[in-house]
Every structure is written in C-alpha cells, then in structure tokens.
Design a protein that fits this description.
Layout: E1 15-16, E2 20-21, E3 28-30, E4 42-44
Antiparallel strand pairs: 1-2, 3-4
Length: 52
C-alpha cells in the first residue's frame, strides 16, 4: 500500500522505515460504537505485532 498512509507504531508488522504502512487495507473503528467526532475516539484494528 504505502501510498500516503503513515504509521508511527514501529512494533506493527506493517510498519516500514519512514513511518510507511504496508498493509493491504486499513481497518479503523470507534471505541464506544457511537458516532465519533474526535480522532482519539478511534483505533486501528489493522495492527499486528511485529516478529522482529
């Protein structure tokens, strides 16, 4: 993927140097299941721990 999708979580297996995300898709959810209005109310479900 890498097209304009950045990630600071270097413990994710989809993380690449330069904070690039190499996931095939990004799955973002809200924490409480309600309408969100702030970024802090969301989370990335695409995260998978790195093996290195």
């Amino acid at each position: 993927m890498e097209t304009g999708v950045l990630c600071e979580v270097n413990t994710c297996k989809n993380w690449k140097n330069g904070n690039k995300c190499t996931a095939d898709f990004i799955y973002v959810v809200n924490f409480d299941g309600k309408q969100t209005s702030e970024a802090e109310e969301t989370g990335c479900k695409t995260f998978e721990p790195s093996t290195s």
